[in-house]
């Protein structure tokens, strides 16, 4: 089993950009580093860190959006997720919402060496 949407080229780019996934405490931390999730920094219920939008790796953000594009074309669960999101929000935002799903799976897939 491989990660849907990640082919030979993207599977080569990801390890070159991150080195080792061992430096991330969790898959959510990896997804945050890949700019796939909204930053959220709360202190006493107040949102802070608005100028912190560009932390992380911009190339990984691109890789996972590209992988989401391929996954929604060739993977049935990915397509169904995209269609559900697209019914509620714009197509661009629906594609971007698919990227964190793949980013959270990748560290486990790399650990099992299936990529």
UniProtKB/TrEMBL annotation:
Residues 1-82 form the Transposase IS116/IS110/IS902 C-terminal domain. Transmembrane segments: none annotated. GO terms for biological process: DNA transposition. One of its GO terms (molecular function) is transposase activity. InterPro entries: Transpos_IS110 (IPR047650), Transposase_20 (IPR003346). This is Transposase.
